[in-house]
Amino acid sequence: MDSATLLEVSNVTKSFGGIKALQGVSLSYRTGSILGLIGPNGSGKTTMLNCISGFYKPDDGKITFNGKTIQGHAPDRVARAGLCRTFQLTLNPEHMTVMENMLLGPQKQLGEKLYNNIVRLFGVRRQENQNLDRAYELLKLIKLDQHVDEYAGNLSGGQKKLLALGQVLMAQPRLILLDEPVAGVNPKLIDEIIDVIKGLQENGQNFLIIEHNMHAIRELCDQVCVLNAGQVLATGEVHETLAQEDVLQAYLGSGG
After folding, report:
1. Of 128, 149, 167, at which residue does a domain stop?
2. Which residue, 142, 181, 191, 198, is most buried by CB atoms nearer than 10 A?
3. pTM above 0.90, yes or no
4. What does the alpha-carbon distance between residue 90 and residue 164 come to, in Å, rounded to a whole number?
């Protein structure tokens, strides 16, 4: 794996009973790009994301992140390694404010240990202030700075997606796996979410995205990997790959 390849998936398989969800899937992610993982329903996209992020253990194959093997590791261990994810259905506590949700994101918070609150109180307070400052900066980037004290449950679907992204950013990951970031979002907010992701990428954030919305894929992705029936159907530059006849038939339909 060369220095620019941050994530490498090699011949990963995963079955559920007699159903082969992934059959020898391989893909790679290079830093600085946005990779789209696409395909029809049941093609294995979510299973692949769950294997990468530690929610599923592959039956076979290898997953390497930042030069280290991670397949079979628990999700929290994968996240601590710098690979975090969002979910199609946002999981942010709805009775907490936007800021309170953001402050759930940082890892290794000193205040989580009673000992530190007694002996290292100054360090705890300094870290809390740093987290607050970072949260305010990120809320501006994701265009939620006007909703700091709003309950998460009062946000629109698109705003909840942005909040989930902001919370993940608080952990300062090297790579974020986005699970359908514009699914179910008001069309007026889709382009806003696209702009936010583009801006974060320009600032050095790495993304791998699962998404059905082809407008979002074309706007965001440099490369795509197309899955069909648990296998890689095609991979390459986004516009060229989406124009392939086998991709149109499998994913977009013959009328394409």
Report:
1. 167
2. 181
3. no
4. 6
